[in-house]
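Closing statement on the adenosine-5'-triphosphate sub-project.
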Amino acid sequence: MKKLIVIRYSEIALKGKNRHWFEDTLVRNIHTQVSPLETIKIYKIHGRIIIEPVGNIENITSILNFIPGIANYSIAYQTSHDLAEIRAISKSMMQVFMDKTDQKTVRFKVESRRAEKSFPMNSIQLSQQIGGDLLQEFEQLSVDLHQPEISLGIEIWQKDRCIVFLEKINGQGGLPVGTAGTVLSFLSGGIDSPVASWFMMKRGCKVIYLHFHSYPFTGEQSRQKVVDLATHLNRYQPKTTLLIVPFTDIQKAIKENCQERYRTILYRRFMYYIGNQLIKKYKALGYVTGEAVGQVASQTLENLACTEDAAAIPVLRPLIGMEKAEIISYSKLIGTFEISIQPFPDCCTVFQPRKPEVHGNIKTLQKEEQFDYSNLIQETLGAIESITIDEKSPKLYW
Ligand code: ATP
Ligand code: MG
């Protein structure tokens, strides 16, 4: 009997006229992520995406679990419209469940959906028929339509196809990556920025990572940490780019030309000056940072205003109202925590001011910046390292 993976999508269904485009993007993302590992046939039918696996199902589902836009999916068996066959597969699936459980009683329901109206029973009749059969066969079962512990799903499709499944496995939810435009995400080696990147991928943004490093003050290990973070995060989206920007010369120039207490804000403003030059090339519509109000001196509302003043596109801060403990729990959930806590220095700890300004003022900062840095920006842009992030089975950290 043929096994299929039946994928249900999230909010895509709400998108009206754009629906096909959303669906096709999701199909393309699934295909791109899965096909290097497993050969599959993938298509849309009756508001579902179907994968016909050729090889190992676990390999495929281990990837599906990370793809934004998937609400849930089921491993299903395909039969014909023949009622005897539907009964037989329903019983054997329930038998497999019963063999695994040690529960004395199990509340269940059968949920049918009939996309092919020529099938002789309507969906309620079919559910009652199969439900009755299962009740007779397994004495542990009792019907509970409102709070069942398990649901057996039956869908009658066109062309004499019927699928039966027992479990819905939750996916990431959200929207398919690529449906909400591209963002440049400021990825430090810390805990927050990977979480911020993940939130934006779940909202359908393609994330390009931008990292600033201060070689030789931050070493190869700091750089590798960021490559590891980007690689790990890329389980959630198809191939992307990590841009590594050498920032030491700019930091030195700021140290030499500006008042010490403004350094951190000025570093941030210069990160945007670099980013602003990359917007066109990468068609970026927004920046993403891991900032949260009041978390550190550079993240007071005044200082956030001072840094974002330098940005030419909107600055998106998905963590803005979260406390650290909450952010940490997300970073554990997505598996970046263990990488983030590796103790390698970040560029912003280099030449740190002893007493950073907490209440920055845009006019003052603009005055501080009045030294000639245009060559410096051009040289830095020319020295950016671009790394393609396309790892299919990165090392797992949890
Ligand atoms: P994180 O844990 O993400 O590093 P943080 O609490 O350490 O955050 P800051 O160091 O103030 O906060 O950085 C705030 C944000 O600025 C980061 O979340 C990140 O988006 C961006 N950022 C900081 N340093 C860098 C860097 N070296 N390269 C790229 N982005 C950076
Ligand atoms: Mg940081």
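The CA atoms of residues 103 and 366 lie 69 Å apart. With this model delivered, the sub-project is considered complete and its resources will be redirected to Aim 3.
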